[in-house]
Amino acid sequence: ERIARTKATIGWQRMLQRSLPPRPVLGADTEVVLDDTIFGKPKDAADAIRMLTLLSGRTHHVLTAVALCWEQNTVAEISTSAVTFRAIDRDEIERYVATGEPFDKAGAYAVQGRAATFVRRIDGSYSGIMGLPLYETASVLAGIGFPVL
Predict the structure, then answer these.
(1) pLDDT digit string, tens, across residues 61-91
(2) Strands across the sheet with 37-39, in order?
């Protein structure tokens, strides 16, 4: 949540510095958590292989915070989802990492990409796992007077 709020606040400040018309500014951040260990973005291929090996055959949590900055207020909500991966063999993990898709992704995977074949079960928000939870985004927008519908 801290990072999502920081992104939204910095975006708001830059909008004002550039004298752009005021608009709500959204920030979001996603983390993957397994056994109280946070998996951010992998540093390199070896780190991506390490993360995916640990996630293989297990259930982990994906937490995505969305923050909205508007005028003097910043509001935030967090989406939490449980994702269960099937067992993934080392060769398959290495082929996936070689595609380049895991880089710049929390937990070294993109659920909307090739890694969808690893997912056995999702309990929660698919859009939250992708990185922008639509329910929570609509909620913070409506909360400041910008209903989605």
Answers:
(1) 999 999 999 998 899 999 999 999 999 999 9
(2) 37-39, 25-34, 59-70, 73-85, 119-123
Residues marked as catalytic:
29
Beta bridge partners of 73: 70
Cα separation of 25 and 126, whole Å?
A: 23
- Residue 140 near residue 67 (C-beta atoms within 8 A): yes
DSSP string, 37-96: EEE-S-SSHHHHHHHHHHHTTSEEEEEEEEEEEETTEEEEEEEEEEEEEPP--HHHHHHH
Q: Which residues contact 73 (CB under 8 A, 6 or more apart)?
A: 144
DSSP 131: T
Identify the bridge partners of residue 30 per DSSP, sorted by sequence position. Answer: 64
pTM: 0.91
Rounded Cα–Cα distance for residues 68 and 143 (Å): 10
Q: Is 51 exposed, middle or buried (0-12, 13-18, 19+ CB in 10 A)?
A: buried
